[in-house]
Amino acid sequence: MLIYNLITVLICTITTTLALPPKFVFDGPESQRKYLVTNLPGLSDNLQPDQIPLMFAGQLQLHPENHSSYFFWKFSDPYRIPENKKRTIFWLNGGPGCSSMDGALMEVGPLRVEKGGKLGYNNGSWHRAADIVFIDQPVGTGFSFADKLISELNQVSDYMLVFLKKYFEIFPEELDNDIYFAGESYAGQYIPYIANGILDHNEKSGEKPYNLKGVMIGNGWISPNEQSLSYFPFFYNHGLIKTNNPHWGSILNQVEECQRLVDEADAHWNDNTVDPAEVNFGPCDAILNKLLQSTGDGQCINMYDYLLRDSFPSCGMNWPPDLKDVTPYLRDRDVVNALNLEHIETWKECSGSVSNAFTAKNSFPAVHLLPRLTENIQVVLFNGDRDIICNTMGTLSFLKKLEWGGSKGFTDEETNINWIYDNEDVGYIKTERNMTFINVYNASHMVPFDVPNTSRALIDLITRNYDEVISPETNQTSFVTYPLGVRKQLQDTPPTDSTNNSTTTTTTTTAESKEPTSNKITRVIQLLVICILMWGIYVLYSSYKSRPSSIIRKTGKSVPSNKKKNVQWADQLHSYEDDDIKDFESDQQEGFFKKALHKLTGTSVTGGDNRGNYVPTSSQYIEDIELGEGIRDESVPDDFIIASDDEEVVEEGQERDLVDDNKKSMKNNNKDAQSS
Predict the structure, then answer these.
(1) Rounded CA gap, 89 and 164, in Å?
(2) Which of 77, 68, 72 lies closest to 57, judged by CA?
(3) Pick the catalytic residue: 68, 151, 185, 363?
(4) Which residue, 636, 212, 183, 206, is CA-closest to 447?
(5) CB-based contacts of 268-277 (< 8 A; 24+ apart in sequence)
(6) Which of 30, 49, 278, 431 has the fewest CB atoms lying closer than 10 Å?
(7) What is the DSSP letter of 377?
(8) Residue 185: exposed, middle, or buried by beta-carbon count in 10 A (0-12, 13-18, 19+)?
C-alpha cells in the first residue's frame, strides 16, 4: 500500500508539473505597474494559466486644460514566439463614438465575456501575434472623457499623436517595435488620418520616428457616398429585393440623387478645399434606410449580416449577441476598479453625443489619403462578404476609381489570388503597389467575430508570413497561411505584386514555432525536479524492500506447538562490542542522502556488505535469542534459528554424547525385534 501511494503521488506530481506552464511574474518598472491589471473578475473561471494574458489598462491624460483622457487596454502574451515580440497593433472601433471594447471582448482580443460575468478564451486572439492595444477614442467614447467633444478628423490625428507620446513614455521598450493600426467601420476614416499624421510627425518633428509599417481596415467606411451607392446593387444581386417591390421606384430615385453628389465630388477631386457635395451624406444614407424599410415585415434584414434578421427598426443594432453580456460586465464596479479607472464613466457601446458632434464637415473623406499612405506603408483593406453597410462592392468601386502608385485601380480587375488558411479556401485577394484588398468568406461586418482564427492570419498577410504557390494545372496563384505553431520564416520584403505572380513561384518551408529560452530553462528545472522525485521514490522503495521480515511455513505433518519461536536475522545480530557500537552511532549520525547512497551502492558505513542475510547460529545461545550476542560457527549451514523458550541449551560435547546414546538405543531395539 505504501508503494502504491508513493507511485500515485509521483504520477500526479509529474502530470501537474508538465501540464502547468511556468507562471509569469511581472517585474517591470513602477510606471507600468500603475496600469497593471491583476484582479479582473471572472478571469480564472475558465482560462488555463498559459491563456491568461499580461494586461495593462487605464486612462492617460492628454490635455490638462480640457481634462481629456483616453482609456486604453493592452494585452500581451508572455509566451509569444520571439518573431512576434517586436510588434504592436493599436485597434480602433468605429461609430463615430463606438468603444474599442467591442474589439477587445468580441473580436480580436483574448477574452470573451460569458453568461454570469465569466470570461472565456478566444483562440483566434491577435495578442498571440503582437501586443495589441485597444483605445477608446475620440474623447467621450467608452471610458474616455473630456470637457469638450471634437468634430473633425484632423483632431482625431492630433489627439492620437499626444496619446502615442504618453503611451511610449510608459512603455519605452516598444518604441522600436513595428507599429500597425487596425480597426473597422468608421475607423476607415480615423486610421488613414492617424497614419498620415504619423508620417508628418516622422518627417517634421525632429523626434524619434514611429516605426509605422502598415494599416489594416476591416469593412471600412472610407469613401462614404461611394459606399452608399453600392447598397442597391448589393440587395438586388443577393436576392434581397425584387423588381416588383412597391418601393422599387422610390429607391431608384434616391440612388440617382446620390449618384449626382458622387459625380460632383469626382469633378472636384483634386481641389485643395473640401467640396460640399462630398460631405453631404444625407441623400446617400437614405438609400439604406429605404431598402431596410422595403424588406421589413415586423422584422428586417440585419445590416451587418444579410443572413440574419432583427426587429424593425433596429435592423442590426441589437447585434452581436455577445453585447448583452459585455455591457453589464463593463459596468461592474469590480471590473472598473480592476481596469484602473480614476474617472468612472458608465460604459456604453456607442455614444450618441459623440456621433452627433462628429460631423467632419471640414475634412476630406479618408479615401483621399490612401495614395500617400501606399507610398510609405502597407495598406490592407479586408471585407466580410455578408456585410451590407460596408460591403465588398463599395470598397472595390472606390478602388477602381482611385489612382495610387502611378496607376488607377488594380491593373488586372478580373484576376484574384486565392487565400488558403489551414488548408481551406477562406477568401480572395488583390494586391498591387502596397495596396491589398481581401474578401473574407462567411464573415459579417465584424470579421474577427465570425472567423477569429482566419482573421489572425491577416497579420501574416500584411507581414508576408505566407507561402505563394502557383498551381501548375490552372496557373492560379494562392497565398497560403497557417495556424499558429506552423509558421513561415518572416521576410522583410514587401508583398509581391500580383502583376508579377505569373512568373514567380515561392515555396517556403514551414517551421515549428520555437519555445522562448526562458520557458526552456523552466522546463529543464521542472525535469530536474521530476528526476529528484523519482530518485527519492526509488530510495524509499529500496528501503522498504530491504526491511527485515520472515515467513515460517509449516511443512509436512508438523505438530503445532505452544512454545514461542524466536527468529533472528543477520542485520539484527550485530555484535555490540565497543567498535561496533561506535560504528552504529556513526551510522545514526549520517545524513539522509549519504544513507541513501549507501543503500543504493549496497555498502555499509564501514565498507562491509550490509545486505540482509540469514544469521548462522552460534554454538552457544542465551535464552532470549533476540538479545543474544553469540554468532554460530559459519560452517553450520542453518540460515536462521528457531528456539523454544523452555528448550534446554546444551554444550557441544553434550550434543555428541546424546547422539551416541541414541545410536546405542537403536541397536538394542533392533536386537529385541530380531529375538522376538
Answers:
(1) 12
(2) 72
(3) 185
(4) 183
(5) 269/368, 274/361, 274/362, 274/363, 274/364
(6) 30
(7) S
(8) buried
C-alpha cell of residue 431: 494586391
Residue 347 CA neighbour count, 13 Å, CB half: 23
Question: Containing H/E element for 478?
Answer: strand 477-481
Q: What is the CATH number of domain 34-406+417-512?
A: 3.40.50.1820
Question: What's the pLDDT at 31?
Answer: 86
Question: Which residue spans within 23-130 are E strands per DSSP?
Answer: 54-63, 68-76, 87-92, 111-113, 119-121
Task: Give the pLDDT score at 554.
Answer: 46
Give every CB contact of residue 13 below 8 A, 6+ residues apart in sequence: 530, 533
Q: Catalytic: 425?
A: no
Q: How buried is 617 (Cβ within 10 angstroms: 0-12 exposed, 13-18 middle, 19+ buried)?
A: buried
- CA dist 59 to 34, 149, 432, Å? 11, 17, 40
> Angle 248-267/282-294 helices, nearest 10 degrees?
160
DSSP string covering 104-130: HHHTSSSEEE-GGG-EEE-TT-GGGTS
Q: Which of 131, 305, 325, 387 is catalytic?
A: 387
Closest CA to 58 of 38, 41, 77: 38
> Look-up: residue for cell 527485515?
548
Q: Among 38-42, 264-268, 520-524, 555-559, which stretch is predicted with the lowest mean pLDDT?
A: 555-559
pLDDT for position 518:
45
State yes or no: pLDDT of 208 exceeds 80.
yes
pLDDT band at 602 (very low <50, low <70, confident <90, very high): low
Omega within 30 of 0 (cis) for the link into 320: yes
141 pLDDT band (50/70/90 cuts)?
very high
- Bridge partners of 378, per DSSP, are 214
The whole-number average pLDDT for the span 528-533 is 73
Cβ-contact 110, 51 below 8 angstroms? yes
What residues contact residue 414 under an 8 Å CB cut-off, 6+ apart? none
- What's the CA gap between 482 and 430, in Å, rounded? 19
Q: What's residue 608's pLDDT? A: 47
- pLDDT band, residue 632 (cuts 50/70/90): very low
Average pLDDT over residues 413-417: 90
Instruction: Provide mean pLDDT across the span 63-68.
Output: 94
252, containing H or E segment: helix 248-267
Measured CA to CA, the distance from residue 82 to residue 487 in angstroms comes to 12
661 catalytic residue (yes or no): no
Judge contact between 446 and 432, C-beta under 8 A: no
CA distance 227 to 391: 8
* 343 belongs to the catalytic site: no
The pLDDT assigned to 239 comes to 95
Residue 23 CB coordination number (10 Å): 10
CA distance 514 to 485: 8
* Closest CA relative to residue 495, chosen from 398, 430, 400: 430
Question: Is pLDDT at 658 greater than 70 in this prediction?
Answer: no
Per the DSSP assignment, residues forming a β-bridge with 88 are: 131, 179
| Catalytic position from the list 445, 450, 460, 498 | 445
Q: Judge whether residue 264 has pLDDT over 70.
A: yes
**Cβ-Cβ contacts under 8 Å for 544 (sequence gap 6 or more):** 2, 3
Distance CA 180, CA 92 (A): 11
Question: Pick the residue with more confidence: 378 or 612?
Answer: 378
